[in-house]
Task: structure prediction
Amino acid sequence: MDPENLYDLSTVKEFVGDNPEQIRGLVMIFVEDVPEMLEKLNTGKENGDWDEVKFFAHKLKSSIDLFRISPIQQVIRDIEMIARERKELERIPPLLERVNITLDQALIALRNDFNL
Result:
């Protein structure tokens, strides 16, 4: 996946304008919070705790939407829905793998782009 297309700051800028310090602040929060949420999402899946999966998919959805990480915007919604409905649970592992890979790449790109 091309790192140039991993995220889009236009929604972030709608919130804070073109203020580089505030943009950097939101990026720092994203870079700090997302790995922990992702770990808890993965742990929930490993433990079969679908309420936990649903909860952290929902939390990650907001962050993914804020940074417009379009390759997984629908994927995280699918994970949340599947966990909520507890149907087709076998779909979660490959979907979650896509989220893991994409977020790892987005985190690397953001850290590099903002010298974090």
